[in-house]
Amino acid sequence: MIKFWKEHTTLRVVLIAVAFFVGLFLVFFGWKNMPGTIPGLAVMFVGLAFLLFALWLYNKPFQDPKTPPAKKKK
Q1: Alpha helices of the chain — where are they, by DSSP H?
Q2: What is the pTM of this model?
Q3: I need a labelling partner for 42 at 20 to 30 A (CA). Which of 12, 29, 31, 51 fits?
Q4: Which residue, among 51, 40, 48, 47, has the nearest Cα to 17 in the 3D structure?
Q5: What are the φ/ψ torsions at residue 56 (nearest 5 degrees)?
Q6: What's the CA gap between 20 and 47, in Å, rounded?
Q7: pLDDT interval class at 15 (50, 70, 90)
């Protein structure tokens, strides 16, 4: 899966840009138009999820596929 994101950089850049701007829009929309309400907070959390998705997608090609994640020792 990591190889896919390294080979399709244009798709990755477009998805990152869309997720970033949608996330920013939702955060600002929830903050400015619905302050102090639960639906406004929910809109801001969805915007945060889009921003985190953009960050995850940006970092995906830089992961080393051969190294498994470290396990915690008890």
Answers
A1: 2-7, 9-33, 38-59
A2: 0.77
A3: 12
A4: 51
A5: -60, -45
A6: 9
A7: very high
